[in-house]
């Protein structure tokens, strides 16, 4: 679950099934023990909504990595002062090299590229909101300079930030599609 909509849908489906649970980004803790039949009902209900239950540890860890990154880039007021590798290792209690190798192997993209894609999508959002100038956005998103932000933005989108800002239709991607 990488969006609030997913979180709400999971919440609704589990309530319909009469379960006691806590829903967080990317994870559900069901308080009571559930039967095989209940597990099947959960799977079917979520599948109808386009969601799936993940049981294997690798898939769960990949989702946790994604959720930490999404939370950090899109929902935190300020990005962490430490570098992302230390931040991920600390949050998930795994060695970064292990996380990076697992992520690349399973997702076909590096954690770094995944973070950059999310940062650029967040930059688009900040440009559209038009509350900060490009310099302030670069600072907020921890770019070393406006030039660094502009180069990365153009590499990913094909536009400079100022050209993107001038477009009448500014295309953004849903978080779950990045």
Could you please describe the fold and organization of this structure?
With 178 residues, the chain is mainly α. The chain has two domains: 4-48, no CATH class; 56-173, Arc Repressor Mutant, subunit A, CATH 1.10.10.60. The chain contains nine helices and two strands; from the N terminus they run H-E-E-H-H-H-H-H-H-H-H. The chain has helices spanning 4-16, 36-48, 57-75, 84-92, 96-107, 111-129, 134-140, 146-157, 161-166; strands at 21-24, 27-30. The chain has a two-stranded antiparallel sheet with strand order 1-2. A hairpin with a 2-residue loop joins strand 1 (21-24) and strand 2. Helix 3 packs across helix 5 (96-107), helix 3 (57-75) runs parallel beside helix 6 and helix 6 packs across helix 8 (146-157). It is globular. The relative contact order is 0.09.
Fold topology:
Elements lengths: L3 H13 L4 E4 L2 E4 L5 H13 L8 H19 L8 H9 L3 H12 L3 H19 L4 H7 L5 H12 L3 H6 L12
Antiparallel strand pairs: 1-2
Helix pairs in contact: 3-5, 3-6, 6-8
| Gap between N and C termini | 13 Å
Shape: globular
Q: Low-confidence stretches at least 5 residues in length (pLDDT < 50)?
A: none
Please give the domain count: 2
N-to-C order of helices and strands: HEEHHHHHHHH
- Please tally the helical runs, counting DSSP H or I stretches of 4 or more residues: 9
Rg (CA only): 19 Å
- The count of strands amounts to 2
> In the CATH classification, which architecture of the largest domain applies?
Orthogonal Bundle
Give the biggest sheet.
Answer: 2 strands, antiparallel
- Which strand order spans the largest sheet, edge to edge or round the barrel? 1-2
User: Average pLDDT value?
Assistant: 88
Could you tell me the strand content as a percent range? under 5%
Helix and strand composition category:
mainly alpha
Tell me the name of the CATH class of the largest domain. Answer: Mainly Alpha
Helix content: 55-70%
CATH topology of the largest domain: Arc Repressor Mutant, subunit A
The CATH superfamily name of the largest domain is: Homeodomain-like
């Amino acid at each position: 679950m990488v969006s609030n909509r997913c979180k709400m849908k999971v919440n609704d489906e589990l309530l319909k099934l009469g379960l006691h649970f806590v829903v967080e980004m990317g994870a559900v803790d069901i308080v009571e023990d559930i039967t095989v039949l209940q597990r099947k009902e959960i799977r079917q209900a979520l599948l109808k909504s386009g969601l799936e239950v993940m049981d294997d540890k690798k898939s769960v860890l990949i989702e946790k990595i994604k959720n930490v990154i999404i939370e950090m880039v899109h929902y935190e007021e300020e990005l962490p002062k430490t570098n992302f590798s230390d931040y991920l290792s600390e949050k998930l209690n795994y060695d970064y090299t292990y996380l990076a190798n697992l992520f690349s192997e399973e997702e076909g993209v590096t954690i770094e590229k995944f973070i950059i894609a999310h940062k650029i999508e967040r930059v688009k959002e900040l440009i559209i909101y038009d509350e900060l100038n490009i310099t302030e956005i670069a600072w907020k998103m921890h770019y070393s300079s406006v030039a660094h932000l502009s180069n990365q933005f153009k590499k990913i989108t094909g536009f400079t930030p100022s050209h993107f800002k001038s477009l009448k239709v500014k295309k953004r991607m849903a978080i779950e599609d990045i």
